[in-house]
Specification:
By secondary structure, the chain is of the alpha/beta class. Helix content is 26%, strand content 26%. The longest helix is centred in the first third of the chain and has 16 residues, at 99-114.
């Protein structure tokens, strides 16, 4: 048995100060205040030295890590995230490509999941191919970066489902593209699959029509989420409004240091509307050629790209989830308990990883030790301490 002592223990909705937590056979075996919880003889001891001990972070939307894309080297891509406290991650393939390319990406991620070094990969978040490329950042992509979308026909989606239905936990899609037949097929292939409204300009009604099938996530809320203007002087309602309105939809937030993906005021507004139970922090980490933007030379957690029409746009982040949690606390005033909820418990629950994401007896012993700024000093994966070099 492993005992973590002198911990500020972060449980789902409060702190337990000066606590001890026990790990046995890869699972959380018990915990409590040290003054009332005896430590059995023979325990291996880890002294948290007054730091916070919380559940490992769960990143459900991430394209890259350690300088490589998941589609190229998924095992290597996990290393940076594990070092920074992410103990479960959904690998996100390319948002563009051919059917053979998608099948190859799914196969590569599957093989990585089966390797011991890729054990933190908990599945796939398919951000495409059934998206809408005609607006927002997707329409600004130049040349070979322009995404290819598929028509929702069986000759395309049946091979995708055959290759990956069991490991694809989330399908990101644009409901306005007439996808009910595909959604039913995906649900039949994997009853536990979730759907996310992604790169879409759907109406609330089109989004809500897919909620009974498992649409429960709004992909990178307020980023490339579309807009509908019915009259020039009247604000329309589209994806963001539907996500904000529906209690059954989680809002993914990319919380970068400057609040460029989502303005800090907007982050506070979304938190006020959705509450801490329906927000998910994601890294959406991607790789692009380095670009210095005047006035933003000091920013290290953003990617920039050129628009086809000229000018500069953002394109994903360089975040790890612990930094996103730190930024969320800075921008919204959330506590560290709240940060762990949106960085661990909520994402795990949203995609069906119910065996992790919180400190509770019987849950996986995926744990991190961190200071108040989410600087991670120790990572424990399945009850085993990992070697990290922060």
């Amino acid at each position: 048995m492993l005992a973590i002592i002198n911990a500020e223990l972060v449980v789902r909705d409060h702190l337990i100060p000066e606590a001890v937590l026990f790990v046995e056979d890869g699972k959380i075996a018990g915990f409590g205040e040290m003054r009332t919880t005896p430590i059995p003889e023979g325990c291996e001891i880890i002294d948290a030295k007054g730091l916070y001990v919380g559940p490992g972070l769960v990143d459900i939307h991430c394209h890259s890590g350690t300088g490589v894309r998941f589609i190229h080297d998924p095992v290597k891509a996990t290393q940076e995230h594990l070092q920074c406290g992410t103990t479960s991650i959904l690998a996100t393939p390319s948002t563009r490509g051919t059917l053979p390319g998608y099948l190859e990406q799914i196969d590569g991620i599957r093989k990585a999941m089966e390797a011991p070094e890729g054990s933190i990969i908990a599945g796939i978040y398919m951000e495409g191919p059934y998206i809408n490329p005609g607006f927002g950042s997707m329409s600004n992509m130049a040349g070979p970066n322009q995404p290819r979308v598929f028509d929702p026909v069986p000759e395309d989606y049946e091979p995708l489902l055959a290759a990956g239905a069991d490991i694809i936990r989330v399908w990101g899609l644009a409901p306005e593209r007439g996808l009910e037949r595909f959604v039913k097929a995906a649900k039949a292939a994997n009853p536990e699959v979730r759907f996310a409204v992604t790169h879409s300009e759907a109406t609330p009604q089109q989004i809500e029509a897919l909620m009974p099938y498992g649409l429960c996530i709004g992909t990178h809320h307020t980023n490339a989420t579309g807009t509908i203007v019915n009259y020039p002087e009247c604000r329309g309602v589209c994806v963001d409004e539907a996500v904000n309105y529906n209690d059954g939809i989680y809002a993914e937030i990319i919380s970068d240091s400057m609040g460029i993906h989502v303005d800090p005021y907007m982050q506070r507004l979304v938190r006020k509307i959705k509450g801490d139970d329906k927000i998910i922090l994601i890294s959406d980490q991607t790789i692009h050629e380095p670009m210095l933007v005047p006035g933003l030379e000091h920013v290290t957690d953003l990617n920039f790209t050129y628009r086809k029409s000229g000018g500069i746009d953002i394109s994903g982040s360089k975040l790890t989830l612990n930094v996103a949690c730190r930024n969320w606390m800075k921008h919204t005033g959330a506590s560290i308990v709240d940060a762990f909820k949106v960085g661990s418990y909520n994402p795990a629950k949203a995609v069906g990883l119910t065996d992790r994401g919180e400190i509770a007896v019987g849950k996986r012993a995926d744990l991190i030790i961190t200071d108040h700024k989410m600087n991670v000093s120790t990572v424990i994966l399945g009850g085993k301490v990992q070697n990290i070099n922060n």
